[in-house]
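Tutorial sheet, problem 5. The two components below are modelled jointly, 454 residues in total.
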Amino acid sequence: MSLRSVKYLLVLTLSLFALSFSSDLFAQDTLSKEAKPAAEGKKEGFDAAEVIFGHILDNHEYHFTSYHDEQGKEHHVSIPLPIILYSKERGLTAFLSSNFEHGEANYHGYKIGNEKIIAVKEDGTEEAGIKVYDFSITRNVVQMMISLAFLTWLMLSIAASYKKGLGVTSAPKGKQNLLEPVITFVRDEVAKPNLGHKYERYLPYLLTTFFFILVNNIFGLIPGTANVTGNIAFTVVLGLISFVVILFSTNKHFWGHIFNPPGVPGFVKPILILVEFLGVFIKPFALIIRLFANMVAGHIIIICLISLIFIFGQMNAFAGWGTTPVAIGFTVFIYFIEVLVAFLQAFIFTNLTAVFIGAAFEGEDHHEETAHL
Amino acid sequence: MSLSTILLDGTANAGGAIGAGLAAIGAGLGIGQIGKGAVESIARQPEAMNDIRANMILAAALVEGAALFGIIVGFLAMVLK
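Model answer (structure tokens):
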């Protein structure tokens, strides 16, 4: 395209855009008032945002599907989970979440509000001033317990077979073949290069972190399960534990380098001290956000691709059927990437924790070398 | 309702989406350059392939972490009122 026609095209587009900035004046303002209530009414049909957030967020039940029977009544296929509530005024209560009937009933003076459980009076209005502490066994908690049980069984059974002598003087058998390369990878590529001669002290924590994140990532990919690693609370706790481990490995030289960076001109020092001090907190924060965002983004992509089928299907049944093979194809492709991301994010979290721990106590090496001169 | 009010209504959503898209462009550029450097160094010295691959993955994860900061902020712009 010649430059001239590009210029004409730009002028055309901009003038059309500028024309749109007129405002209409009405004698009566009823049009806008009538439009609003209709828009705020219940959205019939397929609501993609509701489906996405229903899958991403924590929930008091394992919800698999809903369907309408011949009478039009809605049935839900779900596994209810126990709800445990504590408030100072009412004490401890525990009951099964099916009593809430999916948000439509009150029970024992509690009701599911928008996302939280609130205390209600007899007639269903909210009783103000009562703080409800929610200790329920939610989806994420159950899923974490399942992955904990799986991981414990796997590791303990392999340890037992090593103790019996299998795989020590002979070739590894069975599950040992699955895990031995992974464990030696974490030891030789993550722990030893970054932690030097102190690697054995940190190896249990690094291995636990790696396998816990990996198992939760993989379980989260199975349809119908909960999204544990894509939950900010989960990653915050992991990041905090790493932060505490890093802090406990620091030594004098580390803090000396933070508050007195060597080889820096005087006028830069105040800025650099601030940046270095903030960096101590930002590095674990980046660990948290990295794991959380990667996992939740992957889940949202998969759900969006499948929702495309239903969005198109609502407009036109043939469009829905036509979108299905394309969407399923993309989803399978993204699933492969997500399995890779599951392994990668577990590795990166562990590797960066090891790097930060190594950086926390490495200072003494410089000074030891200078002392030998 | 004029076009300008309709356009301005979803500004938070548009801003969040555009910001997330720009962050993705930044991630693509950064990780592309990491890949380019890694592949070129492997071509120069094939014996170092394993070390180079490990460092490439580490650097790519750091760059992607930074990009995901931007995407999370874009998402928050859409969700928070």
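Marking note: Chain B has one domain: 11-79. Full credit if you identified this.
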